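Note to self: keep these together.
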Amino acid sequence: MRPHEIDFSTFEGGVFTDLMPYQYGREVCTPAHAFGPARRSHYLFHYILSGAGVFTTTSENGERTDYPLRAGEGFLIFPTEITTYVADMDDPWEYIWVEFDGAQVKSALDRLGISAANPVYHSQNDEACNTMVSAMRALIEHRDASPFEHVADTYRFLDGLVRSAVPYRTSAAGKLHGYYVDAALEFIAERYRTNIGVEDIARHIGLNRSYFGKVFKESMGVSPQQFLIGYRMEKAADLLKLSALSVAEVGRSVGYPNQLHFSRAFKSVHGVSPRAWRREHAGNVAEGAEITPVSSR
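Structure:
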């Protein structure tokens, strides 16, 4: 690639609740090329392939923090952060990036030393770092691959990031909180179809509801109730898009026996009713229609 050259794609393979890419690309920057200030809706990770530059975060009270970075390092932008990044004047950087999100992301990143207050990536494991970069390249270079392959590459990227980043969180309290949150996420994934609530999740992992809510929000950034509703509504969106189940059947499939309550919850998350969302996203799959298997050639 030659300066200034950019190669990127957006993911259009549907909704994957646990982990999915949103966009991915690579850019060779010219001297002093800048992006921002801007806010992102999802996590955005840049890995610097060559050259140097400065990544800048701006807090809500306007305080700026500059991070000079060069090849072999990276930076993670967190949702809603205000950030700017500028290529070096003499040795402008080339970087590769992935924008991603999902139910598993916050708990995975929570174990790392990377945070909004410490957004810089350093590798402690060359093999895992190579896995991460290889997966990022695969997303860009195999743009015609199936959605499942893209999601698989995103999992490989996140695995490489988690295993290579410096350092892992080591405090006993941090490990214990991580254990509780992981147990809660596993319980939700297994039981979201049933009529579980926050009290049931807290009881399952052995915490009182108040303390569980505090631990969960510290790790995930949202309350258990908000997360549970969001998780169910993402699963509902998948069913509306990919199946011919009625709205009532979709609601029951994600733990809402009352269709009115389901429709209200869905609209609170997606901004439109389930039927309106299906009309916009479901293509030719009509509610109640029969799905005829296609014979192989």
